[in-house]
Amino acid sequence: xLTERPTGVLGGTFDPIHVGHLRTACELLAGxxxxxxxxxxxxxxxxxxxxxxxxxxxxxxxEAAIRDVPGFRVDDRELRRTGPxxxxxxxxxxxxxxxxxxxxxxxxxxxxxxxxxxxxxxEIPGLAHLVVARRPGxxxxxxxxxxxxxxxxxxxxxxLLGRVAAGSILVRDVTRLEVSASAIRxxxxxxxxxxxxxxxxxxxxxxxxxxxANPEEVRFxxx
Length: 223
Ligand code: ATP
Hints:
Elements: E1 7-12, H1 19-31, E2 36-41, H2 55-66, E3 72-74, H3 87-98, E4 103-108, H4 109-113, H5 124-127, E5 129-134, H6 144-153, E6 154-155, E7 169-173, H7 181-189, H8 200-209, H9 215-222
Parallel strand pairs: 1-2, 1-4, 2-3, 4-5, 5-7, 6-7
Helix pairs in contact: 2-8
The site of adenosine-5'-triphosphate (ATP) has 18 residues, from helix 1, strand 4, helix 4 and helix 7.
């Protein structure tokens, strides 16, 4: 049977990118034998307040974080689109470009549980496989239409992801690092240092730009 190594897609606000995103991507790239993972920053996330950092800086931080990492790639297609950054549109544009290559949309379990609130979410399994990254041992009851989708499309063997272009759901254990972008923004607003929560190159950009700093703190530290 014909198989093709899938392209992984990791969308997010990346405000900022952190080691939780990166370690998950790293384990999935190797563990699922993906051809690459594209990090796709959202211009206007539909389900949450706009990003705190400007687009250009979020993009620079992403590029700095994954520079020279084989298999990791930044894809700025959502930043080039107007309107809300709907994942269904992103996957459709990737599908138009990549033809029948298997696509894997990577989601944390939290993001997966919120899938039914996404724009035209029912179309997503027709465009990509879903790879749900969860902390080992984590169990949750998935109910309703999402539960039915999971029951109908769940697979265990990652090799199956390369056999068809889309449509399966693989729940995969990853080393879940309890880091969040919002906690990093809060830390920095209090004047804290994000060392080891983000790659060094991202930390340098954060410290140089003061992007999440509370204006009071910046004035104080500049005195
Ligand atoms: P925020 O704290 O601002 O909500 P975030 O840290 O959750 O941000 P996002 O850019 O919103 O980051 O997340 C993009 C994707 O990365 C989502 O699928 C989310 O589930 C996943 N993700 C976020 N944090 C982690 C983490 N620590 N480990 C693994 N995946 C994560």
